[in-house]
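Notebook entry, cofactor series.
This is the third protein in the set we're modelling with a bound small molecule. For this one the ligand is zinc ion. I'm keeping the input format identical across the series so the outputs can be compared line by line later. Sequence and SMILES below, as received.
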Amino acid sequence: MEWTDETIARLRALWAEGLSTAEIGRRLNISKNAVVGKAHRLSLPARPSPIRRTTGEATPRPTTPKRTQGPTLPPLPASVSAPVPVLRAIAPAPKPQQPRALPCCWPIGEPGRPGFHFCNAAAVTGKPYCEEHAAIAYVRVRDKREDVA
Ligand SMILES: [Zn+2]
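Returned structure with ligand:
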């Protein structure tokens, strides 16, 4: 192997590019050992990490990330690890406006006698009676209190 100035220049250039010694040898049509030996004699600086992975030689092993073994946060206490879903807790109940569907509890007729029944009108929300009977009921309650008093 005869090292010409041109070959040495190419070696330096390829060396600077970070190619592997084998790749440089292929490009200069010389052996890898010739490249290594010449580079040593030329006191070429240690090459930077090769960016190109044409041969896989001198490719640094990928550093294993240290944070791949699970969550970095410490495990939460049992009472906290199972939080109640907020949205579910706030979500309305699956029985929409059920009180309104209840019939009025107002008795019509005499209990125990034929024809006795309860008012079929829908009860006012929050009250056991329909709007009409609720008014009567509260009047009666008030009258009773006045009677007692
Ligand atoms: Zn009623």
